[in-house]
Amino acid sequence: MKAWFVIAEEGRTRLEAREVPQPQPGPGQLLVKVRAAGLNRGEFIVGGLTKAGAAKPGGQEAAGEVVGTGERVMGRCPGAFAEYALMDAREAIPVPAHLSWEEAASIPLTFTVVHDMLVEQGHLKAGEWLLVTGIASGVGVAALQAARAMGARVIGTSGSSEKLSRLGALGLDLGIQTRKGDFCEAVLKATEGKGANLALNTVGGSVFPEIVRSLAFEGRLAIVGYVDGVLRSEIDLDAVHAKRLRIFGVSNKLRSPEQRATSVAGFKRDFLPLFEGRRIRPLVDKVFAFGDTPSAKAYMESDAHAGKVVVHI
After folding, report:
1. Which CATH number fits the domain that encloses residue 149?
2. Domain presence at residue 84
3. CA atoms of 155 and 147, how far apart (whole Å)
4. How confident is the model at residue 42 (pLDDT cuts 50, 70, 90)?
5. Which of 85, 108, 160, 175 might form a disulfide with 61, Cβ 3.0–4.6 angstroms?
6. How many independent structural domains does the chain possess?
7. Residue 209: domain span
8. Which pLDDT tens digit goes with each residue over 193-212?
9. What secondary structure does DSSP assign to 208-277, as a single string?
10. Could you tell me how far CA 204 lies from the centroid of its own chain?
């Protein structure tokens, strides 16, 4: 079968097509005929999920049919950029009937991470304010949709006024056009001087200090991305102390299979009904053909998208 591999070299990654044997499922695994796979930026950052010099099967989330039963499933799926891939049975999620393969493929990792940030660790409540930097990213748009479904209000930053306008239709309460750490004043004005109750940093260290300034008393801050490449930042310890802030990271990299399965169970309980009831429909920005997966990667890295980039297989 055909599969795309991610190769890291000289500070960058590239995709290479290979012919490989069809995988064979072991105990607790499902063999899935992949119909669509979502792209995730973290996989293509050297030093993140991909180490320099390594070549590994590409793709982390997919939607498709279980071989032997025909069941429509979506889920975390290492090696998803392939015609067939293996999925942990505990992480397989039934696909709501009204969703396309491309929409389903954009859900698993993105919304499970969002569930972790908003529900498991962020404890977001109806009526609270959520701040999302880089809100046009796949995770950012998913956080907007989930937070609005939960009854929260959302502020988002983006360098593109066009993207912010598009997200207004999804319920964005305030869009701040900026790529810099200069949004605190606007956040405080929107929240009547109180600040955001929860913030999601999808950008990285360059905006970390401004997010801390933008948080309310007992605010929470989730760290989830580094599109700016800045992995370090100063911390205003006095602000963290005085405002009783809580800062946490969100990553599946070091989690055990059991922990990941628990997160999927939480998603099924809290978020899957929102998809089934059509209260959330994932935003797919663009779909590429399987043979054009490198172009999908380039498009995502150009930051031209709002929502998810998906390949159809």
Report:
1. 3.90.180.10
2. yes
3. 11
4. confident
5. 108
6. 2
7. 111-249
8. 999 999 999 999 999 999 99
9. HHHHHHHEEEEEEEEE---TT--------HHHHHHTT-EEEE--STT--HHHHHHHHHHHHHHTHHHHHT
10. 14
